[in-house]
Specification:
7-stranded mixed sheet, binds pyridoxal-5'-phosphate
Amino acid sequence: MLNEKMVGLGTARSVIRELFEYGRQRAAVVGAENVYDFSLGNPSVPAPDSVNESAIRWLRGADPVLLHGYTSAAGDPAVKKTLADALNARFGMDYTGDDLYCTVGAAAALCCCLNGLCNPGDEVVVFAPYFPEYKVFIEKAGASMVLIPPQIEDFQINFEAFEKAVNPRTKAVLVNSPNNPSGVVYSEETIRRLAQVLEAKSAEFGSPIYLIADEPYREIVFDGAVVPYIPKYYKNTLVCYSWSKSLSIPGERIGYVAVTPSMAESELVFAAVAGAGRALGYVNASSLFQRVAADCVNDTSDLSVYAENRRLLLDGLRDMGFTCVEPGGTFYLFPRSLEPDDFAFSERAKAHDLLVVPGAGFGAPGHVRIAYCVPTERIKRALPVFEALAKEYR
Ligand code: PLP
């Protein structure tokens, strides 16, 4: 007898993947240029030259046995020192390399945190709209996900619902800002209030509630949006980061967990994260890409493309009558669908070969996600198609 849950996860495609596959099939019929696929969050701008240059330098110059060999389970000490120094310079923190655990992208970072922190019966709070894989990760860690409904006027945190949901079983709260799918950046006020609630509830229950900050979109922000560095506001924070989006290297699978050194028993928490990495078989993130990430720690790919796409699409959709919360970052828009049933709306869009993802899977029905990490010319060609769709609702 196989593990039925895993069979289910391995068999059922996500709505996003379904749409993506549908787009490929349609492209074979009507031509790729006639399919307006906004389904997947795969970066569309190339990695900066510094990534390839660094990789080539390491491949040409380093001792190949060392380069391709195992690093320490948590990552190469020199790499981790470089990453810690960069975080300290940028955010005024006092990390050492020993506070960082290199991982196979943000996904593994999240799994290491969740498995390291949670015991069976624990709860992890997540705010809608949210990245749907969270539920899979949380349940595999033996915990259950408690979903807080969205505050749809601004997609900041719905504190009324949150405060009611926190209880002695709450082991962690998982936040994602800039947010996939809404693009919203949590304001400093939101983060301060979140920290206050968590301090108060941790004191009331006599045990820390950890905050897991999932930040793969930290660098992708627009119009001067500022992303508060959460460990500055709440010390029981674990930051999950990856270079998948900022350096456009999602296939290289490189990221880290940073355990805030000032949290109580931080060494024990780090040990739990490392232990989870070991139990999950995640030790030793790519040796080459640990080095590349350290070399490129202050670089990003050309994010101006996303800024232009966002402006074109946001202005265009609003002119057509769509309502959309201003996204401060990422490469997603999350407008309201033009009818309450987001699945029906997505189907109707499909009839125009316009592929947008229903919001229900992100915990916010009545919305659709548009991943605009596509060539700008596709946005320009898609605008009249969005207009044709909008016209059907007038
Ligand atoms: N968290 C969020 C919010 C994401 O959108 C993604 C990927 O799309 C991930 C985590 C996983 O990122 P990675 O590719 O670094 O594992």
